[in-house]
Sequence to fold (526 residues):
Amino acid sequence: MPELNFDFGADIPPREVADSLVAAYLGSLESVYRILHVPSFRKEYDGYWDSPGSAEPAFVIQLQLVMAIGSALYDDSFSMRKSAVRWVHEAQAWLVAPRFKSKLSLISLQIMALLCLARQTTGLGGDLVWIQMGSLLRTAFYIGLHRDPDKLPGMTQFKAEMRRRLWSTILELDLQSSIDSGSPPMIPLDECDIGTAANSDDEHLLDAEGRQVSQSPEAFTDMSVALILRESFLTRLTIVKFLNNVQFKGSYRETLRLHAYKSASRSLQGFGLADRAPSLFQRRMLDTIFSRYFIALHVPFFAAALTDPAYAFSRKTVVEMALKTYYAARPRAAPVQISPGFPISQSKCSFSGADHYARLSITGGGFFRYITHLATVLVALELHDQLQEDIAMGLPAARPDLIDVLQDAKLWSLQRVEAGDTNAKGYIISVVLCAKIDALLQSVRKDDCERHLVDAALEAGRRCVEILERSAGDIAAEAHTTDEDQLGPDAAEEEWDAMQGIFYDFTNIDSVLGFDTGSEQVLDPF
Fold:
C-alpha cells in the first residue's frame, strides 16, 4: 500500500525556541486538559534532541502539536503561525495515512486530543472541532478506553491511570465542542464503567514498587483542575443537553434549577492555604469555562428580561458572567484589580511574565475568540438598553465599566487582526457597536446616526485592509491550496456572505448575536 510522502519533523525550530514552545503548552492548556504524562514526555523530548533522526514518527507528530499550541503563546503577534499551521496539517495527514489500525493506541488518542486543541489555538477550523471529536470519541471506545482498566488484562497501574486521565479529557473536549457548536454531546455514559483519575502529581503517580499513589484530596496537584472539571461534568452535560435539544421549550424553572451548581466554580478556594496554589491561567480558564455555561443557560431569556422583570435574574447573570469572561481575557479593562482571596502561583513553565490566557484571546481561534466576542456583544446589548431607558427618562447616564469594555474590545479585535486573524468582521462589529453607543450618548438623530455608523464601519474596514495588505506577502506564500483549513486561520469562521448589516435591530437579540438563542420560544417564567 502506498505511503503518503510527508517529511515529518522537517520544520522543527532550534532547541531554544522549541523549549519555549513546549514550556508554554505545559504551563497552560496541559495543566487544565490532562493529555500527557509530563515526566515521560520530557524524557522522550530530551532523547529526541540527542538523536532527532531516530525519533518515532508518532512522537514527532505529538511534539509538533505541542509546539503548535505553544506557538500561539509565544508572542502577541503569533510570529510562528506559519510553522504552527504546517504542524497541524502534518498531524492531520499522519492520522489519515494508510495503516491507521496500527495507530490505535494511547499515543494516537493523545495526538487526536492535541489536534483538537491545536485547531482551536491556531484558528484552523476551530469551530468544526465537534466533527473531529466524533472520530476521537469513537476511537476511544474502539480501543476500550471507556472500560474500567482494572478489569482489562495486562494493565499496569501507570497505564490504567493514564487511561482514566485521557478519558476525562476526551469527555471535557466533547462537551466543550458541543456547547460551542450548538450540537448534541455524543457521550453514552451508560456504556462506560471507567472511574475517575487519582489526585496525584505526575512525578508521584507511582511509587518505587510501581503502585499507584493518590495524594490527599485537599492537596493541590497536577490533576486538581482536571478533577474540578470532572466533578462538575454531569451537571454541565445536563445543561448542554437541555439547551441543544431540538425540542427546547425554554423552561425557566428548569433554567433556575440548573443554575444552582455554583459550588464547582468555588472549588479552587480550598487550595488557598497550601504552599502550592492554582496558576493565573488555571483560574482564568476555569472562570471562563464555568461562566460559559451560565451565559448559555440564561441567554435565551436575556431579550425577555429587557422588558419583563420576571426574568431579571437572567439579565443580571448574563451581564455579570459576560463581564467576568471579558475580564479574564482582558484584565486591563477591569475597573479594579480584585484579589482572588488566595495565593496565585506563577507557572514554572511561563516566560517573560506573559499572561497566557490573555495572549490566547488574541492569537487563538474557536472557543478563545468566540467567548470574548460573545461577552462584548452582550455588554453592548445591556448598555444600549440602559441608555434607552435613561434617555426616555431624560437622564442620559451610562455605566463606565460597560463603556470601558466596549472601548477595549475595539483594541482587542484590532490586535487579533494584527496577529494574523483574517476575521476583520470582528473588528468592524466592535467599532460599529461603539459608534452606536456613542451616538446614543450624544443624542444623535436617527438619520445622522446611520451616517455615523457607516463612516465608522468604512474607516474600520480601511484600517483592516491596511493591516492585511502588510501581511499579504506571507499569505501569498501559503495560498496554493483551496482546502478551507489552509485558506488561513478562522477561514471557516469567516463567511462574508452571511455577515450581518451594521444596522443591528437591538430589540432582537438573535439579530445581534448572529445565532438562534431560543428566545422566541420563551414561555411564562413559572
About this structure: The radius of gyration is 24 Å. Residues 338-353, 480-504 have pLDDT under 50 and may be disordered.
